[in-house]
Structure formats: structure tokens, C-alpha cells
Amino acid sequence: MRSHNRTWFFAAAILLLPTLLFAQGFQNGNLSVMVKDQSGAALPGVTVTVTSEDRGGQRTAVTDTNGRANFPTLLIGAYTVEGSLSGFQNSTRKGNRVDAEKTTEVPLTMGLAAATETITVTGQQPVVDRTNVSDNTQISSKEFEKLPVGRSYQTLMTFAPGVIDNPGNGSSGNPRVHGANESSNVYLFDGVDSTDTTTGTFGSNLNFDAIQEVNVITSGAGAEYGRATGAMVNVITKSGTNDFQGSLKVLGTNDQWNEQNTTHNEVTGASLARVKTDKLNPEYVATIGGPIWRDHVWFFGSYDYRKLLSAPATTTVSGENYQSSTLTKFPVYRLTAQITPTQTVWAKYSEDPFTGIIRDYWGASPELFSLTAQEQGGKSKTVQYSGVFGTAITAEALYGTSSSSITVGPYKESSLSNGAPHFNEADGKIYNGNPFVGLVDRPRKQFVGALSYFATLGGNNHNFKAGVDYQDLKSTNDFRYPNNQVFSDVSFDYKTRTFVPDIRQDFLAGGSSSTGKDTALYARDKFDIGRRAFLEVGLRYEKETSKNDIGDKVLDTNSISPRFQASYDLMGTGNTILAATAGRYYQSVIQDFADQFATIPQQVNYDLYVWDGAKYAFDSSFRAGADSTPFNLDMKASHVDEFTVGVQQQFGPVLGGGIRYLHRKWGDLIDDVFSFDSTGNIVKSYANLASAHRKYDGLEFTFEKRFSHNWNLLANYTYSQTRGNHFGIANPNSTNVGNFEHAICQSTVDPTLSSLPCHNAVLSNEGKPSYDIPHYFNLLGGYTFALGPVSLTAGGAGTVSSGNAFSKTRSVNVLTPGGKASGQTLTYYYEGQGSERGPTWTRLDASLDAAYRILGTELGIKGEIFNVANSQKETVVSNQAWCGTTSTTACATAVKNFGTYTARGSFQAPRSYRLTAFVRF
Fold it and tell me: pLDDT tens-digit profile of 606-628?
């Protein structure tokens, strides 16, 4: 423990040294002041002072020959800008908002006079930034805290255009962005990568009331960003100011308040009404922030304690109800210090223990025995430094760690086969056992850094930046199937617990750990061309290596990513911007890839036994990992080439909109490839498959009104399509593409697929994924008004979406060269992926926040209604099994039941309510 503390003290001491070249400013923004005289001519030599309205600190610069003064690496917040020059009026603008990774441009006009002129602008927060034309959506706490939103940063992320998250059926926590799969995003907490090292999905939860803003970049990101072909999501936590501010909240939900499910199982006709529980689920939240040393040192802390008995869910076949009873404790602590007017350092600690979870990992689990009990949690630690040296150089530094761990086991023990899962070939569902027992641990260490240099060359302003991003990753796995077995049965009767045997797989068990190292170097230049054009040109180099559990290098890849942004001020007023971006973005190869080469990989190596009519007889063995799967050190990381073009329009100080077209095409997609060797054994390898492809085209319309004059609104509409054959929804490196190209596949249910070339099953992948949503519109907004002494804020959030794509499918067995079942299966699509589509659905949420202010403190209550119209539309189809004939009973049943919705989770959740009592100060 002492050694651990010394390490952190040493890291913090290093970061305080102002001469080091370190990190990029994930939490900082820029402010650029342009000073002109009354004739419109640039004024050089003007002393410009910016003062933080939150923390009181000041910075001063002198305008150059172009009349411009730059203030980089400012903490986000509001600033007052004042210009002074002998013989001219002083000019002041207040309320200029600085946002993360954006440049706020402030114009000052100074006339000849001795008097002081003060110009006051309230809520100045430009939506259009000509120096950063990436597809960037920012949602701040001022805008979302009084609105009807789910209490997670992933929910806020879904209000950005092109973001799709489990449409119509609640948040999965892992949205899909612009055609990318759910493991293609990077999640940053105050600049520290918290993405799960193994799965590439989100790795940690965060105290919702500690969030200052969420910044979502979905396309056109600069060279500073990498390791993602989806979104870069930066969650920025609150920090203290010169004013003591805080809140106390008690949130309550109760399933008895909510509406009943009115839907029915479309196969059996049985009601899907749930047993409602009359139990208040309380959540207690406290926040406090303020000065320790006014104008110099500030603190912030928050603690969230929540007990939640979830609404009952139901199993899809047995119709049994179940509920999660979870307990969460989310502390966040942060300290910020302004060492000098140009030197800032801060440190933060957070954690997220989460117990009592019940997961349906199989998807549409048929019975309670198929469910998984889970506990999870992690910790995040961060230290960051930023400094400005002279008038031209800035340096920043960040060191952080994040970790997440999960333990899993059966929700309910089954005596049959000691709880092993049974795959029922007749209906395609898995009974009797859950998919995991054991644990995983996934820590990450990160060090990032950058240096910026501002210069005027050839009369144009340049902002040069270079940096490094280093990460150390680990993935520890010790999980297995219950009893280390999986059965495939011709049929399984969950009532009698009997089955007709087919095959059995006995898996080897054992723990393993893989490691990885990611290093990125980048350089870019932002510069003006004349007075209207602006360019950003960047280059990013990335090197990624991974080792398996015995230290063998299994991945060693290098990549170079060019990035380009261009903007043109069409009218010369800074309000109408033509914009274009182009670039290549590489996807980090998740540690799950290295885990596949473990000497004892989890849930992979098995012995196959085939039922011979009397007993299970040994047939063959399958071995993957370091002993049998060949390394491919020539493999490249997958990438997407992206091009966007559009126009952005600023309508006022806080109002803007835009139109953007996006084209994205993936390359070097990684996939596992299964085949038979000359002896009939299954061989597994990994490769960049030339036959694997995916592309995305989209058109986005956006409208944004920051909170000002009592209201705010964020709205967007996206028209898009995703096409290809490589979607890897469950695992990005595991699809049918390339598998068993020369083998024969067979269905035990559909006689028309009794002798199907597996190559045909692979080709049937072509089409669109379930997350292809052609039309998607959402909005989030609110309006504040006074009713006597009470301040009321009415809020709304709405979505209109095309239905999910689904397909006519059949699972087919891969036969060995000898004609026996191999234990491997492929999915055959009768009409290609995404051949069907569910109905369009809509949802509207509403809230009313009422606050009475007394002695500087707000006392109030907030009510939220989710799914106001109580729409319970079909969203996730339950039955996709199909047959090419109806000649058998099983096939006739499959055709009859195709496209039906049978589970509670297949429909939109009914109307629900949440109440909050609060004190804000």
C-alpha cells in the first residue's frame, strides 16, 4: 500500500513541473479575441485581459499585427474579455463561454475616445466553430439536469446525431455510431480512457450528478484522437468555483406507479402483464463544491447511493418473472489548483461498485436457469497539468488509471447436468445453464501529452501541436461454462427437464492474462488562409502490440492516419461556414483478440462427444490458442476511411444548425477463420479478410439552441444506411465471413438445407445489420418560466425511429469431412441479412422541475414521465427462425411464428415515473 501511494505522489510531482512536454487538453478550450477599430481595420498592440467568471483568474495577451490575441488551454466556463489601448475606448464583453476542444471567437470593437464603453453579452456560446468542424455535440449539466433523461452518460450520448442505442427498448449502454459496431467507441472520463480493454465497450459507470458536460465527436476528429471508428466520448466532471455550490437530492421510483404491460405473446396469446412490486426505490445524491483558497484552489465532491428493485422481466418460454435488486455507490472527488495565472493542475478519484445484477446474456433467455448473476465495479484516478509559457507555447500533461472487474455466476442453480447449458436445436434457444461463471479484471494505465506553438507565418496564424498517447492494458480472465460443458440437443423439454441428445462439448478450464501496449504520436497544424479560409492538417502514428498469457507476441501492428479539416467563411461574418473533413481512423484491436491465443483460452478448447443412440461417444478435440492457432504478426488494425461535407449556420449568439453528408468505408476488417485440416480437425486462425466489407452513408440535419432567454433545444434528424457482410454485433472479430468455405452444412430441422455448402451460408451474410436505422429523429429541450415565487422548467425528450432490421434465419451444423456434426454452427440467411424490418416507433418523455428560491437556496421537486403516450410498440423481434418448406411440423411452426414478438422485452416499456426532491445552493 505504501509503495502504491509513493507511486501516485511521484506521478503528481512530475506533472507539476512546467517544463515537461505532456498531454493534450481534454478539459480545456481556447478563446480567440479579434480587435478592430470602428472602420473595421485590425488593431495591433491592444492589451486583452480575460477573467474567469467562475474562478477569478486572469490572463493577459497583446494583439498581433492581425489584431488577434489567443488564449489557449482555458478551463471550461464563462469569461469576461476586456481590451484596452491608449487613445481608445476600453471594450468589454461578458459571459463568453469556453467549451472543451473548441475555440470561442470574441470580437471587440474599439473607438477613439477617453471614456470606457462596456458591452454586456449574456450567455455568449457560439455553436459554430470555424476552427473545429468535426461532428461534435456538447450537452452540459445546465441543459440536462432539469430535463427527462436517463441518469447515465451513455443516455446523453444518444442525443448526438448518428448514434443508435438499442432502439425502442431502453439503453444498452453501448451505442452504435455511423455504422460502427458497439465496441468501436472510446469512452474518456476527464481525458482518461475508461473503455473496457477486453470488449471495447464501456468499462465504467459514473456518478451522474458529477457530470459537467458530455462531449461527443462522431466524425471528423482531429489527429489528437484515435483508437476508434465510432465515437470519441469525453465525460467532463464538475470542479469547484469561487462560489460554494451543491445539492441534496432524493430520487424515487416505484413499479407500482408505472403502467402495466398491455402486450401479449404473439405466439401463445398469453398476457405479458408483469407482477408489479409496490416498493419505493430510493436514490440519495449529494454534491458540494467551492473554494479552499479563493481564486487559487477549489474542491468538488459527490456521492450517489442507490438501491433499486427493477421492474419484473419475464423469461421467453417458461414465462417466469425475475427482478434485479441492485446496490450502487458512486463517489467522485476532485481538487483543482491555479498555481499561477497560466499554470493549472487537478486530480480526481472515482469508483463505481455495482452489485445484485441479473443479466440475460444469452438474449431472450427461455427460463430462469439461463440467467446470470453479476457484480461489477472499477476505479479511476487522474492527475492533469496545463501551462502556458510566454505568448506562444503551451504544455499539458495527464496520467491516469482505470480498472473494471466483473464476477459472474448462475442466477438459479439447476440440478440437470450440474447446470450446463443446453442448446435446443428445435427452437434455437439455450436452457438450463447461464453462459459464465468466474471473474474478469481489466486494468488500464494511460499517459498522454502534447505541446502547442502559436506563430504568425506569411501573415497567417498557425497553431502547431504535437503529442504522445501511451497506454498499458491487461485482461485477466478466469471464467467458464457451468460444469465446463455445453449440450446441443435435438429437443429439450424445460418442464420435464428431459432432452433428446445430439452432441456434448467438454471444455477445458483455467485462468489467463494477456497484456497490450498502445503508443500514438501525432502532429497537426491549424492555420488561416487569408481572412475566410481555415485548414487543419494532421498526421497520427499508432503502434499496437499484444501478448498472450505466456508472453508470446500475437499482435504487432503500425498505422499512419492522415486527418484533414477545411472551413470557409462564406459571408465573411463568421456565421455561415462551409466545411469538409477527411481522414482515416484505426480501431484499437481489443484485448479479447490476444485472449484468443491464451494457452488455456476461456470457453474455447473442448472435446466433442456425439450421441450414438446409447451414450456419448468421443469424436474429436478442438484446440485453439497459443498451441494451435497460428500468429499473424502481419495483420493490420481495422480502419474506416471517412469523408464529410456540409454547411454550418450561426443564427445568433447561442443558436445554430447545420447539414452534413457522411461517407464511411471500412477496410482490413479482422475476423476469425475456421476450417478443417487434412486430418479433419478444426483449425482456427485470424486474418484481415478481403471479402469482409462494410460501408455507411448518412445525411444529418442539426439544430442547437444553448440555454439562454429561458430555453434550450437540441434536435437532429439522420437519414442513413449501413451495408455489407461484416457487422460483428456480439464480437467484432467473430462473424461467419470466411468460415468453413469448403465444408458442408446441414440443418436438423429444415430438410431443404440437408446438404448446404457452407460457402452459401457465408454468402448469405450480405445485407444490413439490425442497427441499420434509415430514419432517426430525436430532440431534447426545456423552457423555464416563473409562476409567482416558483421557477418552473418544463422539459421534453422525443424520438421517432424506423424499426429494427431482422432476418429469416436458420442455424446450420457444420459437418466434418467425414459427415459428422463438428460442434460448430453457422447462420443461414434465407433472404440476406436485414431482409425484414419492424414497425416505426415513437417515444416522448416529459418533466417538470419546480424550484422555490429563498436566501440563495432552491427548494423543489421534479417529476418525470417516460413514454408519455404509453406506446408499447413492437421493437425487438423474438422469432427469426425460418424454413424453406412447411412439410414438417417443426418447419410449419417456424414459418407460422416468424416475425412474432413473444417477450416483454420485445416491446417498448410502458409509461413510467420518477420523482425527485431537491435542495440546490
Answer: 999 999 999 999 999 887 765 56
Q: What is the pTM of this model?
A: 0.88
Task: Among 50, 85, 118, give the residue marking a domain's end.
Answer: 118
CA–CA dist 510, 499 (Å, integer): 29
HSE value, Cβ hemisphere, 13 Å, CA-based, for 889? 1
For residue 10, what is the enclosing H or E element?
A: helix 2-15
Residues whose CB falls within 8 Å of the CB of residue 275, separated by 6 or more in sequence, listed in order? 312, 321
Report percent pLDDT > 70 for the chain. 95
Same domain, yes or no: 357 and 222: no
Lowest-pLDDT choice from 240-244, 464-468, 728-732:
728-732
DSSP string, 88-111: B-EEEEEEEEE-TT-EEEEEEEE-
Task: Decide the pairing of beta strands 576-586 and 639-652.
Answer: antiparallel
Exposure letters 788-817 (e unless 16+ CB within 10 A, then b):
eeebbbbbbbbbebbbbbbbbbbbbbbbbe
Question: Looking at the structure, do residues 61 and 154 belong to the same domain, yes or no?
Answer: no
Examine the domain organization and report whether 143 and 110 are in the same domain: no
CA distances from 347 to 191, 197, 237, 560, 677 (A): 12, 23, 11, 33, 55
- pLDDT tens-digit profile of 825-847? 999 999 999 999 999 999 999 99
Express each pLDDT in 426-451 by its tens digit.
Answer: 988 999 999 999 999 999 999 999 99
Helix or strand (DSSP H, E) at 647:
strand 639-652
Q: How many domains does the chain have?
A: 3
Backbone angles phi, psi at 120, to 5 degrees: -105, 125
User: CB of 545 within 8 A of CB of 527?
Assistant: no
Nearest partner of 897 among 169, 315, 264, 265, judged by Cα:
265
Domain range enclosing 147: 135-237
**Cα–chain center distance at 20:** 32
What gap in Å lies between CA 431 and CA 422, rounded to an integer?
A: 5
Cα gap 399→633, rounded to integer Å: 30
How far is the C-alpha of 168 from the C-alpha of 625, rounded, in Å?
Answer: 39
For residue 894, the domain's CATH number is 2.40.170.20
Distances from the Cα of 253 to the Cα of 61, 870, 916, angstroms: 53, 17, 9
Same domain, 327 and 215: no
257 within a domain of the structure (yes/no): no
CB-CB neighbours of 253 under 10 Å: 23
Sheet containing 422-424, strands listed edge to edge, beginning at the edge strand earlier in sequence: 429-431, 422-424, 485-493, 498-507, 606-611, 616-622
CATH of the domain at 68: 2.60.40.10
Tell me the average pLDDT across 891-902: 96
Looking at the structure, tell me whether residues 190 and 85 fall in a common domain: no
- 863: Cβ contacts below 8 Å, ≥ 6 apart: 847, 848, 913, 914, 915, 916
Of the candidates 722, 608, 876, which has an alpha carbon nearest to the alpha carbon of residue 179? Answer: 722
Residue 756 φ then ψ, to 5°: -110, 125
Q: For 892-899, what is the mean pLDDT? A: 96
- The confidence score (pLDDT) of residue 125 equals 67
Q: Is 887 left (phi over 0), alpha (psi -120 to 50) or beta?
A: alpha
Handedness of CA 75, 76, 80, 85 (dihedral sign): positive
Q: Is residue 503 domain-shared with residue 554, that is, in the same domain?
A: yes
Q: Does residue 595 share a domain with residue 467?
A: yes
Residues 6+ apart with CB under 8 A from 35: 42, 43, 46, 48, 63, 67, 68, 69, 83, 91, 107, 108, 109, 110
Task: Tell me the residue length of the chain.
Answer: 921
**812 within a domain of the structure (yes/no):** yes
> Would 6 be classed as within a structural domain?
no
- Same domain? For 511 and 564 the reply is yes
> Of 681, 687, 693, 724, which is closest to residue 824 (Cα–Cα)?
681
Per-residue pLDDT band at 453 (split at 50, 70, 90) = very high
